[in-house]
Amino acid sequence: MTVPFFEFFQSEEQITKALARVESVVRSGSFIGGHVITELEHKLANYLGVSPEQVVTTSSGTDSLVLALLCLGVGPEDYVIVPPFTFYATIEAILLVGAKPLFVDIWIDYNINSNLVAKALSSPEGASVKAIMPVHLFGQMCNMGHIQSLAANYKVHVIEDAAQSIGSYLKEYNGDKQYAGTIGDVGCFSLFPTKNLGCMGDGGFVVARNPAVAYEIRHRRAHCMTQKYCHDGVGGNYRLDALQAAFLIDRLEELPTLIEQRRANAAYYKEGLADVKSVSCPFDGHDYYSYRTFNQYCIQFGTAQQRTRAAQAFKLAGIGFNIYYPVPCHLQPVINGRRGAFPMAEAASERIMALPIYPGLKTSQQDQVIDLLKQLDSRNAGEL
Q1: Looking at residues 147-158, what average pLDDT do you find?
Q2: Dihedral in degrees, nearest 10, Cα atoms 365, 369, 375, 377
Q3: Could you tell me if 309 and 190 lie in one domain?
Q4: Which domain holds residue 232?
Q5: In CA terms, which of 61, 187, 320, 365 is 20 to 30 Å from 149?
Q6: Which residues pair with 82 in a beta bridge?
Q7: What global pTM score does this model have?
Q8: What is the number of structural domains in the chain?
């Protein structure tokens, strides 16, 4: 492929360091728990500006969401306010604990519309809402000031789905910058390979504002075991393994540099696509108060047909892309919702396309992407 959509390693040096870390764990013979997990949790806490006791590593971003819901007491007959434009795991976690999603449409930044959250809380279903689950999609943070205010007024929990947004922060929140996943009651992160901080498999972690909640999550992630073969509740096997943790310790040190490379790539796209009329670049109206990490760089076409043609052209040219997300969650078969109920989410699903944005992407490769979009724009203009 001329331009891959994503490449995990950016250099041979990274591969060598990863192999050395893996070898050290293999030679230790300690694969579950241990000092490597503790070291990673401490380093994550330091990066996010929280206490180490607030951070708990987990087996995946999905399991992080499930644990957060369980430990905040969300269960059957409860509603959780959530956007329909997100990866299915966000909704799946709600269904797994027996609760019900209460969908709220998105805004032009692809994140949940906090004004519509307010309406949902005052609706008949609002009395049964136990939590709000804002999703910081593509590395762009939600309007957390408004969401936190609503949560306080209605006495509901806030669970941040920060799977795609480690490193994103609000520049001025309560007088200081505050990272995604550290504002609500619990923040849930994914360490899936394509994330800004990705491991060599599945992984995740949570940040709990209340250390008691963090303790409960830590307790549940290992079968609620108080001592060997003694269990005082129902949990599960939600642990991150030591091999992944060892790799992530090195990767975390590189994270600020990797994020800046993503931001530089995004700026290059924005400039290069400025005159492409059939494409809208990511909304940048938040940039004065929100530091965005661009886990994905998603453009939106004017019509679904334009995206279809672009996808075909990208395939022919050997340029990688992805569609996040072709079916909004309210229209998934398991939900079977009504088409037209959430027009912003549905429009995004029909028109959005993610471009390569990974660290290590060359400007010459971006130029190929930009040039192809300009060619397509000329054809689209000819149809008018």
Answers
A1: 98
A2: -150
A3: no
A4: 12-249
A5: 61
A6: 103
A7: 0.95
A8: 2
